[in-house]
Amino acid sequence: MLHTVTFIKVGLQDVEKLQAISRVTFMQTFSADNTAADMEAYLNTSFSIEKLTKEINHPDSEFYFAQENDLIIGYLKVNTGAAQTEKKEAAAFEIKRIYVEHAYLGKKVGQLLFNKAIEIAKQKSAIYVWLGVWEKNHRALAFYKKNGFVAFDKHIFKLGNDEQTDIMMKLELNY
């Protein structure tokens, strides 16, 4: 049974914890569908302490841990302005990452992280929220469709040496 989930904004002092949850959840989510070499290359590049430190320090990026008691069970990364992975309008808001420990899938942790992202987007007066989802990540695609997102474009995501297609989705915010 899931107890109360709390959200903690990630600071520099949390970079090693962020690296740990990032690596674990990415591996859990994608290792079955990708080569070990591509996974290792991506993990070493995208989740290095140096890269995560730079992302935490970026004024237009925010990370949040989802915790049950003192256990980190998932995390969220959001981007605005110059931090967005693709050039979007100033009032656009990117959900860059929502990842949940596999033991907590199906327990609404992802929905709680998503709700937190929408709350932040509205606080920042975003006109829409957008994200990219790997075309083979059917669970995530269904989740975002259920939450009102619609596909509007595609882009290439490079995992190691493998070029993959992400479906770009967006949700218009109503105030």
Can you put this structure into words, describing what you see?
The chain has 175 residues and is α+β, with helices and mostly antiparallel strands. Helix content is 34%, strand content 34%. It has a 7-stranded mixed β-sheet with strand order 1-2-3-4-5-7-6, with helices on both faces. Helix 4 (109-123) links the parallel strand 4 (92-100) and strand 5 (128-134). Helix 1 packs across helix 3 (49-57). The longest helix has 16 residues, at 15-30. The relative contact order is 0.16.
Write out key terms for the chains shown.
175 residues, 5 helices, alpha+beta, 34% strand, globular, 34% helix, single chain
How many domains, as an integer?
1
Q: Which regions contain 5 or more consecutive residues with pLDDT less than 50? A: none
**Strand percentage, roughly?**
25-35%
* Strand order across the largest sheet: 1-2-3-4-5-7-6
What is the count of helical runs?
A: 5
CATH homology-level superfamily: Gcn5-related N-acetyltransferase (GNAT)
Average pLDDT over all residues: 95
Structural class: alpha+beta
Helix content: 25-40%
Distance between the ends: 34 Å
Q: How many β-strand stretches?
A: 7
Multimeric state:
single chain
How many whole angstroms does the radius of gyration measure? 15 Å
What is the C-level CATH assignment?
Answer: Alpha Beta
Shape: globular
Which series of helices and strands comes N to C? EHHHEEEHEHEE
Major β-sheet profile? 7 strands, mixed
Kindly report the CATH topology: Aminopeptidase
Annotated CATH architecture: 3-Layer(aba) Sandwich
